[in-house]
Amino acid sequence: MRRPAAAAALLAGALAGTVLLTGCGGSASASGNDSGSDGKAKLSVSSPYMPRPVSDSMAAGFLTIVNKGDAEDELTSVTSDAAGSVTVHQTVGGTMREAGRLTVPAHGRLVFGSGGNHLMFDGLKHRPEQGQTVSVELHFAKSGDLRVEMPVKSATYNPATGH
Ligand code: CU
Description:
This protein is 20% helix and 44% strand.
C-alpha cells in the first residue's frame, strides 16, 4: 500500500515541479525588469588610437573601455582584420607581458594607455598611415563583441595634449 502511494506522490511532485519551473521562468524575468536595474554591463569605448607604427609588422593600440552598467565584464580577447594577431599586454616594471582576461568593473573603466595596458598588433597586413583607421573587435565574456574604429595618429601622439 505504501509503495503505490509513494509513487503517486513522486509523480505528483514531478508534475508540480514541471509546472512550477515554467511559472518560475516567466516571473523571474518580469521581476528582473521591475527592479529598475538589469544587472548587466553597459560598455562603450572612448578615445581609441594607434600611434603610427614604426615597424612594418607590429603596432600598439590604446583606448578606454567604460562600463556604465551594474555588473562587471571581462575583456577576453581582441581581433582585427588588419593584423595576424592582437594580444592584450600589461607593462609591469618596464617589461611587457600578456595580460590574459582583464576586468571592466561595474561603473568603472579599463584604461589602455602609454606605459600601461596596451593592445599589441602582430603581423600587420600593411603598415597603417596617419589619418587611416584600423578596425578592432573587442570580445567580452558577457556583453559579446564591440567593434572599434581606431584612428592612426602620429608616432609620438599624446592623448593628453591631442598632438
Ligand atoms: Cu606589448
